[in-house]
């Protein structure tokens, strides 16, 4: 029974911390805010996560795992590399829109480290897909796959901020995924070979 309660408490702490890190960033989130949000004592928090960096590492790791799962699902799609790249961009946008843990991981990666751990969880595969599409002649010869992937990274960063700063439902049916799809299509239009 104690073990089940400990697992539940740890999950509660991670979810509360993700919400705080997502809204206020690493520097703007004191542990006291996490305890208040999770409705637990400081002792309970430090039992599971002795330091703020340990807590942030756990949140970031959880968000990265969720992201890698989505990357794995996209990798299994029976589609062309270019179609998979689009699906990956839209799946990451959906994750950012729907999952606080992933948004927190994205923000923590940007604010705390120079490793780009969350970004690399999806961008490496995106770059690989665009490279394969280029090799197949599905992109203009002068399009550099790494530069295209960098543009996608800017798109995803913009979606992350859009989601964080937008009140749900404020733009009708203009979700982050729809915005990402429109932007992807515009990027791709400029990258496609002319027939």
Q: What is the structure about, briefly put?
A:
By secondary structure, the chain is mainly α.
What report would you give on this structure?
- With 195 residues, the chain is mainly alpha-helical.
- The protein is 76% helix and 0% strand.
- The chain contains nine helices and no strands.
- It has helices spanning 2-24, 31-38, 42-48, 52-75, 81-98, 100-112, 117-135, 145-165, 176-191.
- Helix 5 packs antiparallel against helix 9 (176-191).
Topology summary:
Elements: H1 2-24, H2 31-38, H3 42-48, H4 52-75, H5 81-98, H6 100-112, H7 117-135, H8 145-165, H9 176-191
Which stretches are low in confidence, meaning pLDDT under 50 for 5 or more residues running?
169-173
Gyration radius, rounded: 19 Å
Looking at the chains present, what oligomeric state does this protein adopt?
single chain
Question: Please, what is the average pLDDT?
Answer: 91
**Strand segment count:** 0
Q: Approximately how much helix is present in the residues?
A: over 70%
The total count of helices amounts to: 9
Order of helices and strands: HHHHHHHHH
Give a short account of the largest sheet: none
**CA(first)-CA(last) distance:** 66 Å
The 3D shape can be described as elongated
Helix-strand makeup class: mainly alpha
β-strand percent reads under 5%
